[in-house]
Amino acid sequence: MLMLKGHFGVNRAGHLVVGGCDAVELVRRFGSPLYIVDEQRIRENYRRFCRAFADRWPKVMVCYAYKANSNLAVCKILQGEGAGAEVSSGYELQNALRVGVLGEKTVFNGNCKSRAELRLAISSGTLINVDSIQELRVVERVASRLGRPARIGFRVNPDIKTPTHPHIATGLRESKFGLDVASGQVMKAYRAASKMKDVQVIAIHSHIGSQILDAAPFEEEAEKLMGLVARIKKELGIPLQFVDFGGGLGIPYKPGEKGLPPEELASRVVPVIERVVKEYGIEQPTLVFEPGRYLVADAGILLTTVGYCKERPGMPDWVAADAGMNALIRPVLYGAYHHIEVANKMRAKRVRLANVAGPLCESGDFLGKGRKLPAIEPGDVLAVFDVGAYGLAMSSQHTAKPRPAMVIVNSGKTEIARLRETYEDLMRLDKIPSWLA
Ligand SMILES: Cc1ncc(COP(=O)(O)O)c(C=O)c1O
């Protein structure tokens, strides 16, 4: 039985179809391994997310988290839809400005921002979520030198447990992110910032983690953030205009897994905000959301070609493909599941149990294990699903393998969005010291 999400199809030849294109044909034209991004799917995901919240709250800003996939074409698609940007490096901020996102629709997060990054953020009017009191002092100095006030919020640590991989759970008290609430750091930071001439304190922020499929932790986050908004207004007289909930909405990766629809998320979070606003008589804030994975993950697939196949009596076959942990690190880094199909044999019977490995010299170099697949031969094209987020963005050149190319598809149209790296690209930045030359 085929287990594909609705935006994929299968053509008469039994080949996978993505964005109106034959996946096998894409590999023939653009080479292997190859990332594909379906433009239309990104647009659908963004519109659905926005609608879910806009139906319930008048002021919402959706800032796409560039770390999920900072390819310029992907950023441009979302900018065209009206998305703001969540950035966590100078390069991502530069990308946001380059594709035309306004500074006022951009938020800058991170626990170790450089002075150069802060200069760019302040001069573009970006909202900076400050992560420590030391950072606040640096922000003030940079703003004062630029002669332009910094627009800031603080990232707070809400101490919330999330049902996700520990590496991407970021809201626990022991996490490196945000100011501690219980010890009074949050109030101390807002008080200090409110006295600074070159700083406008307008926001509060937290991000509890990624790939979360349960609404309860988001509800708890809303309670905690809104409680702080009310307290900051009452005790310090500061009316916060932006309440930034971070990202984190997960997607179903396994066939049959249940997702958390954005409508359900909105229906659980917004009533908390409504209640606190009413109870404390505070002004309706703009709600900021920073989704990354939800917007782009299921719009992306990785196509990789089989080189060899080893049968092993009583054990799964080993299938060796030309992409591994260099192209997609999530399976070994997070134990993540990515569904795999054979793109040129979509209707073939699944008769073998196989482990799919990459070409690198590490046992962690695999894309999936124990998968029921059709009989596999050299030259077959495997499709690895849901890789539009944290796929190419987290890829490496491990064992000096050039990174794959990326192609955007839309209703049968195709265009390169990122060139395949070459040996020259790999060599370009290395230098041999003069005494060795
Ligand atoms: C501060 C912040 N915002 C947003 C995101 C995006 O998260 P997701 O892709 O899970 O929506 C992240 C991801 O780690 C993050 O650290």
Structure, explained:
The chain has 437 residues and is α/β, with parallel strands linked by helices. It has helices at residues 23-30, 39-54, 72-81, 90-98, 115-123, 133-146, 185-194, 216-236, 262-280, 293-296, 330-334, 423-427, and strands spanning 8-10, 16-18, 21-22, 34-38, 60-65, 84-87, 106-108, 127-130, 150-157, 179-180, 199-205, 242-244, 286-289, 300-312, 315-321, 340-342, 352-357, 366-373, 381-385, 405-410, 413-418. The strands form three sheets. Strands 4, 14, 15, 16, 17, 18, 19, 20 and 21 form a nine-stranded mixed sheet that branches. An eight-stranded parallel barrel has the order 5-6-7-8-9-11-12-13, surrounded by seven helices. A three-stranded antiparallel sheet has the order 1-2-3. Strand 14 (300-312) and strand 15 (315-321) form a beta hairpin. The longest helix is centred in the middle third of the chain and has 21 residues, at 216-236. The protein starts with 7 loop residues before the first strand and ends in a 10-residue tail after the last helix. Pyridoxal-5'-phosphate binds at residues 65, 67-68, 86, 109, 207, 210, 246-249, 290-294, 389.
Brief descriptors of the model:
437 residues; alpha/beta; Lyase, Ornithine Decarboxylase, Chain A, domain 1; TIM Barrel; 2 domains; nine-stranded mixed beta sheet; eight-stranded parallel β-barrel; 12 helices; binds pyridoxal-5'-phosphate
Shape assignment = globular
- Number of structurally distinct domains: 2
Q: What is the CATH C-level name of the largest domain? A: Alpha Beta
Integer-rounded radius of gyration: 23 Å
